[in-house]
Structure formats: C-alpha cells, structure tokens
Protein: Histidine--tRNA ligase
Amino acid sequence: MSTFKAPKGTYDLLPPDSARFLAVREAIATPLRNAGYGYIETPGFESVELFARGVGESTDIVSKEMYSFTTKGGDQLALRPESTASVLRAVLEANLHKSGNLPVKVWYSGSQYRYERPQKGRYRHFSQVGAEAIGAEDPALDAELIILADQAYRSLGLTGHRILLNSLGDRTCRPVYRAALQEFLRGLDLDEETRRRIELNPLRVLDDKRDEVRKQLVGAPLMPDHLCEACKAYHEQVRELLTAAGVRFEDDPKLVRGLDYYTRTTFEFVHDGLGSQSAVGGGGRYDGLSEMLGGPALPSVGWALGVDRTVLALEAEGVRLELPATTSVYAVPLGDEARGVLFAAVTALREAGVATDFAFGGRGLKGAMKSANRSGARLALIAGERDLAEGKAQLKDLESGEQTEVPVAEIVPEIQRRLAAQG
Ligand code: ATP
Ligand code: MG
Structure:
C-alpha cells in the first residue's frame, strides 16, 4: 500500500486481467479495419467550446459531467467526455473531407472522462472504441456500422447483446414532432428540472428512467409515427439491410439522442446481464453536427462502444476469451556461468518468437521453479555448472514433470520442436 489511491470513480487495469481489455479493444477494431476504417487519434483534451457545441449545452455530459479547466495560458479546455466532436473537428481541420473520397471512415480507441456518480459500469475514467463515417448519406452506411458492432460482439463470444433501433427524423419532420411532444409533456406532473428540459431538450424526457415519469409517458407521441416520407423510406432501407444481413434488432420508438443535429438512424446496444448500466454502446446519424462546428454539410454516422462494460458483459455471460499465452518457456539458471548462457538462450528464443521469461534476481532452484510454475510456462529451461560442463541444459515439462537433456547449441530448435508438437 502507498499513501495514494486511484481517484474516485477510476480503477487501474492490471495484469493478468488487463489482457481482456486489450482483447476487447482488438476485437472491436478488427472488423473496422476490415471495412476500410483508418485509425485516428486526437488529443485527450479540447476547447470547452467544442464540446459545448458538439455535444450540446443542454446535455448532462456538458452541463454536469465535464472536467473543464483553465490553463496557465488562460485557455478554457476540457478532458474529452466523448470523441465524436473531436474526430469531426480533426477531419475538418485537416480537410480530409475534401480528399474526394467520401465517406471519410475512421476509428479510434481511448480514454473518456465524465464526472459521474460512480457505480458498477459507470466510472469517471472509462474507455471506448468508436467509429465514424463522415460525409455520406446512405442507409447502407448506417447498416454497415451496426453490422460491424454486432460482428465485434459476436467475435468475442457474446450472445446476450440486443440492438435497439429508432429513427429521429430530420429537419423537416423533427420540429413538428418536437412541438407535439412538448405540448404533451407540458400537460404532465413533472419536477422543475424536467419542466426545464421540456423546453430545452424534450426528446431527452422520453429517456427518463424514473418510474413516476415513465408511467406518465404512456401515450406520448412517438417519432416513428411522425416521420416524413423521405425519413420513413430511409429507415425502412436500414431495417431491410440489417434483416438481409441476418442481424436481429428491436424497434424502440422511445430511443432518443436529444440534440437537433442527431438525425434519422439512432441505435443502442444493450446487454441484460449488466443491471441498470445496460448500454454497452450507442450511436447514430448526426447530419447537422459538421455545420454546428462551422464546417460544410457533411451527413455522418458513427458509434462508440464502451470497453469497460463490454468486459463486464463477458463476465456476466461467463465467456472466457482465448488469450495469447504470456510465457511458454521459463529459464532457471543456477550459478553465474549458467546465468550468462541461459540469458543468451532467452534472447535467442525471444528472437525466434517464443515467449520466454527468466528467473531474475539470482534466486535459488526452489523459488525459481515456483515462479516458473506460476508463469504458466509449458517448459522450464534449467542449467547448472555440471550441465554446462557437458555442454548441456535440462528441459523440464512443467505439466508432466518429465525432464530431458538438451545440448546448449540445440536449445532453440529443440524447444520450437517441443512446443510445436504440443500444439
Ligand atoms: P448511459 O446512458 O449509460 O449514461 P451514455 O448514453 O452516456 O450511457 P454514450 O455517451 O452513448 O453513453 O457512450 C457510449 C458507451 O460508452 C456507453 O454505451 C457505455 O458503454 C460507455 N459509457 C458511457 N459512459 C460511461 C461511464 N461513465 N463509465 C463506463 N462506460 C461508459
Ligand atoms: Mg451517460
């Protein structure tokens, strides 16, 4: 123990569990790379104003959850609470959208920071892998992203995730719906804050998790009943493409993102093994965001999947990932001369691609063999003075306990043979 602890709402990723987090990130990235998405990395902090505009002043994220600060130089910055605004800012700044190759398809992986009330699955520092397809309006693109997320979850062995799907309409039909919803909501018995939300961000009220609010929302006007012809046709195509791809989804007419530049397709991935923090990922179309950031009209769609909650979902389903072996061979030198010889053998083995570790710290045989067993290695490579005098080392199978001699010059090929034979 030290005097210090990780800050409230955060936790450290430590081996061996951290390997699962890497595997989850990799599993989400693989289908994206395979579909033409290029890796993008943006700073962990940006101008507060970018998030205020790009996420929205009226959202909880900006109004309550942001870590904002003033720098020594007087700049107002914030740790990123999400990455879509940053990614779009970067794409516009580098003029990637003018490359003549639309949509610009990018993916990212990284930390996000939100000042939330910490609980299981809800942290102040968490990690997302996300994808954005910028500059094309095509239902196949919306479908592609949903299919890629589904592939990622399935490649991890998850079966309990569900896809919730909705359309939020566009500039034509949403304002009409918004007004109808506001009128309905103003007639309900709601607290001060929620009443304010009716005026600022009425769609968000549909997302209220409290029972006393939910009860009153029965009979609320729903977006799918108010879609214009163009939005209806677009949404129908997304649904058909998903169905044709064999991806199951559920229509959820109350699923919302409360901001005006979120348009048409919106979706969430939920997992029922997670209790109240059930969303493992979410996304949708944001055709108006580029203009909000001072860019040209660039219809776009994207998602962000939570790595922490995906790991929790794997735990909830009892899925055990096939993780790459950490150590195959553990070298145990007895005496100074053996140290030199085995250290050289370890380097040669590693160069040959064999995961190898070494008993550091001049340990005795007993302690070193304990470490060998704990390392998960299949073979221990042991040598003392007597072995070396004969130009030999000992190779011990840590499962069967069987021990054989190997000439020092043959260590690398013999170990490769043994590991290959064991599969
Ligand atoms: P929630 O409704 O649970 O607050 P959200 O709508 O704020 O989620 P998004 O902003 O859409 O979530 O982020 C996408 C994903 O990132 C979520 O589905 C979730 O898996 C993950 N996520 C969001 N906030 C947190 C957090 N505080 N801790 C851990 N994961 C998070
Ligand atoms: Mg949230």
User: Anything to note?
Assistant: Residues 329-422 form a domain with the Rossmann fold fold (CATH 3.40.50.800). The first strand starts at residue 38 and ends at 39. The chain has two domains: 18-173+227-317, 329-422. The mean pLDDT is 95.
